[in-house]
Design brief:
The complex is a heterodimer of chains A (116) and B (153). Chain A is an alpha/beta fold and 116 residues long. Helices cover 40% and strands 32% of the residues of chain A. Chain A contains 4 helices and 5 strands. In chain A, strands 1-2-3-4-5 form a 5-stranded mixed sheet. In chain A, helix 1 runs parallel beside helix 2. The longest helix of chain A is centred in the middle third of the chain and has 15 residues. Chain A is globular and about 30 Å long. Helices cover 32% and strands 25% of the residues of chain B. The relative contact order of chain B is 0.19. The N terminus of chain B is likely disordered. With 153 residues, chain B is of the alpha+beta class. The chains are: A alpha/beta (116), B alpha+beta (153). The interface between A and B is medium-sized, with 22 and 24 residues.
């Protein structure tokens, strides 16, 4: 399975819905999508990984790069993931402390919403 | 003839001996092939996922090493399976032990590959029971991983 990246807008949040496998071959596509969003003015990015079958350190590196990129513009990048095989990778690398990780897009959207 | 270095009797010849071009699109082929072998041996699905990720990480590292050194030779992946363990070995053309996986990022130009060296080895170590970095006979580097298939407890 390849990687499918779909971008939708919800309020002021950009939601990246990923389907497939993220590795050294497909990660550049994810990186470009994040770069495009940030360069296009997005400051709240939610990466939905519920339909991701495989994630490696290359994909993690791209997410870290995206987090740094959006944070330099005072933005936020949150992850949506519930499957053990994905959460385990964040846990082993300690990146569960770097990213806000949520169970649903709704939860991430509400959590990341700026206070009025 | 067997290899007892990993604490179990393994055949000297690997059950899987795979060579793939050092290109990103082949890493997927490697992990799915290794996953299929593990499934053939009845390895539980959660352990198969760990094995696939570990071999994918090692293959990505080997790919980056070969790319950085402009080595066109294939990445080699070998696997041995026994009742209690599975051993995976990934071989690249790097000089000596696979220090690049740990080394200074400035020493290794991976071009357009978004390779994250700092995360790869900790991830591998979190997934498998033993990791050994060493020289490859005849030149190059070897990353050997051992996974216990014994249920915990």
């Amino acid at each position: 399975m390849d990687l499918d990246v779909e971008t939708t807008q919800r309020g002021d949040a950009s939601i990246l819905t990923l389907r497939g496998e993220i590795d050294v071959y497909t990660a550049p596509r994810l990186r470009q999508s994040i770069v495009d969003l940030v360069d296009g003015g997005s400051r709240r990015i939610i990466v939905d990984m519920e339909k991701v079958d495989f994630l490696d350190s290359t994909g993690l590196g791209v997410l870290v790069e995206g987090l740094k990129r959006v944070k330099t513009r005072e933005g936020e990048l949150a992850i949506v993931a519930t499957h053990d095989k994905i959460l385990k990778i964040f846990d082993i690398t300690g990146l569960n402390k770097a990213f806000p990780i949520h169970a649903t897009v709704d939860e991430a959207f509400q959590e990341a919403a700026p206070s009025a | 003839m067997t290899d007892g270095s990993s604490g179990s009797l393994l055949p000297s010849d690997p059950e899987l001996d795979l060579s793939v071009p050092p290109k990103p699109e082949y890493v997927r082929t490697v992990r799915h092939t290794v996953g299929a072998l593990a499934r053939l041996h009845g390895v539980p699905e959660d352990v198969i996922e760990d094995i696939k990720l570990a071999v994918s990480e090692a293959s990505t590292t080997a790919l980056a090493v070969n790319a950085a050194l402009s080595i066109p030779e294939p990445i080699e992946v070998r696997a041995w399976a026994a009742a209690a363990i599975m051993v995976l070995e990934v071989l690249d053309g790097g000089p000596g032990p696979a220090k690049e996986i740990l080394g200074d990022p400035e020493e290794l130009d991976t071009g357009d590959l978004p390779f994250e060296k700092a995360l790869s080895l900790p991830l591998i170590r979190g997934l498998v029971d033993e990791v050994a970095l060493g020289p490859r006979p005849g030149g190059g580097s070897s990353l050997r991983m051992t996974v216990s298939l014994q249920p915990e407890g």
